[in-house]
Write a structure and sequence with these properties.
Structural class: alpha/beta
Largest sheet: 7 strands, mixed
Radius of gyration: 17 Å
Shape: globular
Length: about 190
């Protein structure tokens, strides 16, 4: 298998591989373009987001400075908002629902590395997708780790590190993040 085939299959891959690095070029160029557009130019920013991401719903807002590893692996729903200094390391797919807000200085990562120094010296990485449901608010300075699924109507408290799946309708916080309390989904009242 090539290193890209290994990456796409969820196996360990060499992150210094030429093919793997080529995917990052799209992201580097796309992020630089997006970050250079004035925040007041909604039309140009939306066009740049659509060019960078794999799929984009209505009314996306991505404030500077935004960084990602691929871009095309990011799929977001309607009314997506990232505040300042958000990074999405989308080596594997990152799927985000509708009405999601991400606070400043947050990291969503799909890539991990071996605990073994020998494995790290061999430039090994392994990627696992991240899924985030609808109506999620991720507070500032949060970290979402590889392979995590976050349900609908979830609030992640500022500074939380999400290491495991989170069910619907709750507030989580801490390191590692744990359920603090359940919350009501009042969106049915809007129908």
């Amino acid at each position: 298998m090539t290193e890209l085939e290994k990456l796409d299959a969820g196996l360990e891959y060499d992150f210094w591989d030429e093919g793997v690095n080529a995917r990052k070029l799209h992201a580097i160029e796309g992020c630089a373009k997006l970050n250079a557009i004035p925040v007041t130019d909604d039309t140009a920013r939306e066009a740049a987001i659509q060019e960078l991401f794999g799929a984009v719903g209505r009314y996306p807002t991505v404030l500077p400075v935004f960084n990602c590893d691929n871009g095309r692996n990011i799929r977001v729903g309607h009314e997506f908002l990232t505040n300042y200094n958000v990074t999405i390391l989308d080596i594997a797919p990152v799927t985000i629902g509708d009405h999601v807000m991400i606070g400043p200085n947050t990291l969503i990562t799909t890539v991990n590395h071996p605990l073994s120094p020998k494995g790290r010296r061999a430039h090994l990485g392994q990627a696992k997708p991240v899924k985030i449901g609808n109506d999620v608010w991720i507070g500032g300075n949060c970290t979402i780790l590889p392979g995590v699924t976050i349900g609908n109507n979830v609030v992640i408290a500022a500074g939380a590190v999400v290491t495991k799946d989170i069910p619907d309708n709750c507030v989580v916080g801490g390191v590692p993040a744990k359920i603090i309390r359940e919350i009501e989904d009042d969106t049915e009242e809007m129908a």
